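Structure first, sequence second, as always.
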């Protein structure tokens, strides 16, 4: 009988990967009849159970479950990361709304010029300019209030079962993606992100969309299709979260044996 050199499970003849932990078996299993070197007594007797799968040393230790969760943890769910967006995301949200207001004004300028060419009075001209400035001021104030409300809603959690994201303005919505269904994790940085020193992590499930938009739409809605978006992180933090999700996904797939 041959055994896996990582977890000690018996493996069938001719297998290339362990059916328990998924470790490659090339050069890692002894010839039939060779005892498993990792067993406490130097051999794996019939009554001994295989050594359980060992978590990779690079995986960070789990953390206590946060007390203010907006969702119910699953049975056996362990938390590894609670992510609070960087405060620069607040300014990024404000700027996105203000730029949207400026874009609206730029569209109105040619229309206003065409209207003035018809020969309107100076009084009406002042009223039009005052209206445009008042409209822009309303957009700025609304952008500030929106940024303050939305920033407080953004929270992200990474567990040994899934990734969870919360977003909203008045209320909130929850996006939850099981780890075994994740096909890719992408770190994205738009031009505005680079200006503010931010990055986003997009978690793409099988069959889900991976694009989340740019500019104001990216930070207003934060999600597209079945994608879980983590916004407002620093680039090093985004890379760490990407690596953590990949590690937990691989472990979860070995535990469940499922991809979807």
């Amino acid at each position: 009988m041959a055994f896996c050199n990582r977890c000690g499970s018996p493996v069938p003849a001719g297998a290339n990967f362990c059916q328990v932990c998924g470790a490659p078996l090339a050069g890692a299993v002894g010839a039939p009849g060779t005892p498993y070197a990792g067993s406490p007594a130097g051999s794996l007797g019939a009554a001994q159970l295989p050594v359980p799968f060992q978590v990779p040393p690079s995986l960070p230790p789990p953390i206590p479950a946060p007390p203010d969760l907006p969702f119910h943890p699953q049975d056996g769910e362990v938390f590894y990361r609670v992510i609070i967006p960087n405060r620069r995301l607040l300014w990024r949200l404000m700027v996105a709304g203000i730029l949207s207001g400026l874009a609206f004004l730029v569209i109105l300028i040619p229309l206003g010029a065409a209207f003035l060419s018809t020969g309107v009075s100076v009084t009406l001209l002042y009223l039009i300019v005052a209206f445009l400035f008042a409209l822009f001021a309303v957009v700025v104030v609304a952008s500030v209030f929106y940024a303050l409300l939305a920033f407080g809603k953004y929270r992200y959690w990474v567990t040994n079962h899934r990734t969870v994201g919360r977003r909203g303005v008045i209320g909130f919505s929850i996006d939850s993606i099981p780890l075994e269904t994740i096909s890719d994790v992408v770190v994205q940085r738009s031009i505005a992100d680079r200006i503010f020193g931010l990055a986003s992590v997009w978690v793409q499930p099988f069959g889900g969309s991976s694009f989340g938009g740019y500019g104001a739409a990216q930070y207003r809605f934060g999600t597209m299709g079945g994608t879980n978006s983590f916004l407002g992180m620093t680039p090093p933090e985004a890379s760490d979260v990407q690596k953590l999700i990949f590690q937990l996904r691989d472990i979860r797939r070995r535990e469940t044996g499922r991809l979807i």
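Margin note: The chain has three domains: 1-54, 79-88+151-256, 100-150.
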